[in-house]
Design goal:
The protein is mainly alpha-helical. It has 2 domains: about 120 residues, de novo design (two linked rop proteins), CATH 1.20.1440; about 30 residues. It has 6 helices and no strands. It is elongated, with a radius of gyration of 22 Å.
């Protein structure tokens, strides 16, 4: 499937869910008292979706990859901070929320890794490089591949 807007991306939607739920947890009294920790986890959670959006809008595959890895790093930062919360005293009442947020962050990280892996093996250089000449060349390449596949099927007697 081709996505035209970053808002359509399942991984961006997952990252937004992570941010919204992180903000919801940060309103709890235990985290309200820990201002610097709360601010840091909120910034890291928002950074995941923001970097996906920025990379998507940049227009080149290489820039998108860079921002996907930054987003993945931010998801790791969220997980690390959640692990810290699990070990600190005074956050026992948040154990269920922390566990759920860790799962969301891990899911986003896996999705980002899979997308980055697929892009690294792609010949697509990005929207910025998609000129009319490049479009024609791509169409000609696809037509040629389809023609050769059809010839092979005819040769095998399948058509």
């Amino acid at each position: 499937m081709t996505y035209e807007r970053f808002e359509q991306l399942p991984v961006w939607q997952a990252a937004m869910e992570l941010a919204v739920k992180t903000y919801a947890m940060s309103k709890r009294p235990a985290l309200r008292r820990e201002r610097s920790l709360r601010d840091q986890i909120e910034r890291a959670a928002v950074s995941v979706s923001n970097n996906i959006a920025e990379g998507f809008e940049r227009g080149t595959t290489q820039e998108l990859l860079t921002f996907l890895y930054i987003a993945r790093g931010s998801a790791g930062e969220v997980r690390s901070m959640l692990c810290l919360l699990e070990r600190l005293e005074g956050f026992d009442d948040l154990k269920s929320e922390i566990s759920n947020l860790k799962s969301l962050a891990e899911s986003a990280s896996r999705q980002l890794r899979a997308w980055a892996d697929s892009l690294q093996n792609s010949k697509i250089t990005g929207q910025r490089y998609l000129t009319e000449k490049a479009r024609r060349a791509d169409t000609a390449r696809k037509d040629r591949e389809e023609f050769l596949q059809r010839l092979e099927r005819i040769r095998k007697g399948e058509e």
